[in-house]
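During the reporting period, our protein records have gained a C-alpha cell line. A sample record is set out beneath this paragraph:
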Amino acid sequence: MFRNIAETKDGIDTLIDKTRDRVLDGTERAEAGVQSAAASVVEKAHETGYAVRERTNRAARRAHDGVERAAGSVESGVENARARFADVSERAANFTAEKPAQALLLAAGLGFLIGLVVRGRTREA
C-alpha cells in the first residue's frame, strides 16, 4: 500500500514537472512571438517615419521653388513698373518743358477733378 502511494506520488510529481515544462515552453514561444511582432511593428514605424520625412522634405522643396518663382515674377513686375514710370516721368517732364501753358492747364483741370471726387466722398460719408 505504501508502495502504491509512493508510485502515485512519483507519478504526480512527474506530471507536475511535465506540465511545468510545457507551460514554460509555451511561455517562451509566446514571448518570442511577441518580440517578433514588436520588432515588426518597430520596423514598420521606422519605415513610415522615413516616408513621412521624405514626403515632407519634397513638399517643402516644392513650396520653396514656388516662392522663388513668385518672387522672381514680382521682381520682374516691379522692374517693369519702374521702367514704365521712368518713361512716363520723362515724357511728362519733356511735355512740361516744351508746352508749359498746356501743362499748367492740364494740371489745373486734374486738380479740379480730384477736388470734385474728394468733395463728393466727404459729403457721402
